[in-house]
Amino acid sequence: MLKLLGSVCILAAGGYVWTQQMGARRREMESYRDMIAALQEMEDTIRLSRTPLPRLLERQMERRGGDTAAFFQNVRQGLDAGKSLTGAWRNAAAILPWRETDRGTLEELGQNLTGDAEQACKGIELVCRSLERPLEELRQQQPDFEKRSTALCFSGAALLIILLI
Fold first, then answer.
1. What would the mean pLDDT of 4-18 be, rounded to a whole number?
2. Does residue 84 sit in helix, strand or coil?
3. How far is CA 113 from the centre of its chain?
């Protein structure tokens, strides 16, 4: 009976690890998608209505969720604390669950937002194109990632169960 209970616990632990890995991957993909959508919306707003940056940040904080909302909130708090836009943008990019190169791409956008509207729109457009590549890579790798993760978690759990019995 005790071995059966231990086996169930090991199998549940393997399932938990698998669920955590899938959740982290989905969170990363959703973060990319949401940030791209937010930046494209910012570009359209800058181009069409010349909305000031603080109002744009507020709007994105309200409309977005998760990591993207936290990013814009951190930028806004940095600006309120007296930091430059470039510094606040760089610090906020550090919270995103992305690869270092992609965070660096987003950090560079903070410098472009300090110029005129045309420069800001061009910078946003370039960053959006750059962020679409890793998102597409993640989409393409998703089936293989799921297979490997499932195999690793549940075969590891099965091995431990066999050793237990």
1. 88
2. coil
3. 21
Query: Which of 94, 102, 61 shows the shortest CA–CA distance to 80?
Result: 61
Token pair belonging to 16: 């938990």
pTM for the model: 0.79
Place of tokens 């993760």: 149
| CA gap 90, 92 in Å, rounded | 5
Question: Cβ of 46: how many Cβ atoms within 10 Å?
Answer: 20
Q: How far apart are CA 75 and CA 80, in angstroms?
A: 9
The letter for the amino acid at 74 is N
* Euclidean distance between CA atoms 20 and 121, whole angstroms: 37
Sign of the Cα pseudo-torsion (148, 153, 159, 162, in order): negative
Both tokens of 35, joined, read 């940030």
For 29-45, give the DSSP string: HHHHHHHHHHHHHHHHH
Distances (CA, A) of 90 to 79, 101, 108: 12, 13, 8
Q: How many CA atoms lie within 13 A of 6 on its CB side?
A: 10
pLDDT digits (tens, 9 = 90+) for 18-61: 999 999 898 888 888 998 998 888 888 888 877 777 788 888 88
